[in-house]
């Protein structure tokens, strides 16, 4: 029987939702890495994929959402409540 | 839809707004006590039930204060319209909490969604809680009452593109307006401003210009919206715009800061910056009177 082992993501990058912006606006990671989004604002925000890959739904103040990116690619996202908020996750090559 | 008894079909419960279209000019405030019999409807907006930050730690209390004040009007308005963001995060608990307060309105309630009410593009949950009963599938609706043509437009989806009404809704609007006389007063309710009030903060509707072009040929058009938590009026030809205060908290004036965000005022000033408005419609032009809670 073929066994498949999945390793836990060891890399966790944090993006703050601060003053109606994603900080940093662009992060670069590798497949299997995770990004943690933390809402620092008094207002609610979302982390919503432009292409429908992921959606945090509403993140209240101090709300946290973690998403693991398995495939290489460029993932653009925005806030459904504040469309001028835009961010990008670049997933580059295989993990070292 | 065009029927005099539309309210019995669209209203979710009862509450009212006081609006007046008078022939003299638009947005001329009038003493409500004197004008009470002519009050048409009441507008409330942006209640954000579930919000609990410093800008207003008790948004349920301020919504309830608005409802109580409206219920105390000697002559009840024909209806109350809530122009969106009833909830903060679209949760069922927040919808339940909002309904518990808004169901106390004596006049019928007509509600339209804000982007906070349809997070995750979930229109189904919103409609189950506050949808207009006989609206089109997309949520938009119209009706005639007292010689005035009322229209509800939905512009809170596809927000990545600053809010889009979409081709289906625009086609419906075109057909809806074809049955109206040029002299018929028209009142439009939206959540987000239909015109480019301040696009940098998303205070615009990407395809709003298409709707405005259709409305431009009518003699008296009033467009009332929420979303920006403050009173801003604007005139474009025969079209008069008036954004409303929230019942929850104010936001910064456009362009005065890098981002809008909730505006935290000293506690004794908050009630002056939130509330409801009454609207009278006499012979074509809307007369609006603002009613801050403090």
What key phrases describe this protein's structure?
heterodimer, A: 96 residues, mainly beta, Immunoglobulin-like, 4-stranded mixed sheet, B: 294 residues, 6-stranded mixed sheet, 22% helix
Structure commentary:
The complex is a heterodimer of chains A (96) and B (294). Chain A is mainly β and 96 residues long. Chain A has strands at residues 12-17, 22-23, 26-29, 34-39, 48-49, 64-68, 73-78, 86-91. Chain A has one domain (12-91): Immunoglobulin-like. Helices cover 0% and strands 39% of the residues of chain A. The radius of gyration of chain A is 14 Å and the shape is globular. The model of chain A has no long low-confidence stretch (mean pLDDT 90). Chain B has 294 residues and is α/β, with parallel strands linked by helices. Helix content of chain B is 22%, strand content 20%. Chain B has 8 helices and 12 strands. Chain B has helices at 7-10, 32-35, 59-71, 92-102, 123-130, 167-178, 208-215, 267-270; strands spanning 20-22, 41-44, 79-82, 109-111, 141-145, 148-152, 186-189, 221-225, 232-236, 239-243, 275-281, 285-292. In chain B, the strands form 2 sheets. In chain B, strands 1-12-11-2-3-4 form a 6-stranded mixed β-sheet. Residues 12-37 of chain B have low confidence and may be disordered. The interface between A and B is medium-sized, with 21 and 27 residues.
């Amino acid at each position: 029987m073929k066994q498949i082992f999945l390793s836990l993501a060891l890399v966790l990058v944090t993006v703050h939702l601060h003053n109606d912006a994603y900080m940093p606006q662009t992060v670069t990671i590798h497949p299997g890495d995770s990004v943690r989004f933390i809402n620092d604002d008094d207002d609610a925000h979302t982390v919503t994929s432009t292409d429908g890959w992921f959606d945090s739904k509403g993140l209240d103040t101090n709300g946290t959402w973690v998403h693991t990116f398995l495939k290489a690619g460029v993932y653009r996202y925005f806030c459904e409540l504040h469309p001028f908020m835009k961010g990008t996750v670049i997933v580059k090559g295989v993990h070292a | 839809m065009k029927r005099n008894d539309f309210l019995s079909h669209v209203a979710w419960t009862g509450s009212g707004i006081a609006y007046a279209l008078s022939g003299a000019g638009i947005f001329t405030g009038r003493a409500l006590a004197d004008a009470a019999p002519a009050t048409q409807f009441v507008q409330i907006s942006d209640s954000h039930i579930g919000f609990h930050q410093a800008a207003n730690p008790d948004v349920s209390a301020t919504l309830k204060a608005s409802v109580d004040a409206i219920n105390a009007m000697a002559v009840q308005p024909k209806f109350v319209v809530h122009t969106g963001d009833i909830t903060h995060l679209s949760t069922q608990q927040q919808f339940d909490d909002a309904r518990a307060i808004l169901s106390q309105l004596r006049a019928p309630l007509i509600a339209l969604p804000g982007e906070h009410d349809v997070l995750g593009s979930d229109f189904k949950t919103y409609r189950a809680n506050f949808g207009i009963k006989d609206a089109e599938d997309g949520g938009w609706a119209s009706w005639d009452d007292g010689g005035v043509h009322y229209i509800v437009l939905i512009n809170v989806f596809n927000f990545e593109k600053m809010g889009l009404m979409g081709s289906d809704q625009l086609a419906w609007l075109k057909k809806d307006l074809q049955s109206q006389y040029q002299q018929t007063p028209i009142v439009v309710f939206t959540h987000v401003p239909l015109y480019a009030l301040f696009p940098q903060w998303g205070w615009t509707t990407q395809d709003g210009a298409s709707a405005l072009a259709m409305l431009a040929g009518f003699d008296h058009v009033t467009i009332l919206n929420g979303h920006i938590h403050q009173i801003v009026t604007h005139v474009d030809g025969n079209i008069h715009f008036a954004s409303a205060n929230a019942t929850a908290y104010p936001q910064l004036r456009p362009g005065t800061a890098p981002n809008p965000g909730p505006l935290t005022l000293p506690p004794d000033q908050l009630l002056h910056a939130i509330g409801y408005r009454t609207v009278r419609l006499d012979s074509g032009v809307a007369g609006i009177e603002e009613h801050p809670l403090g």
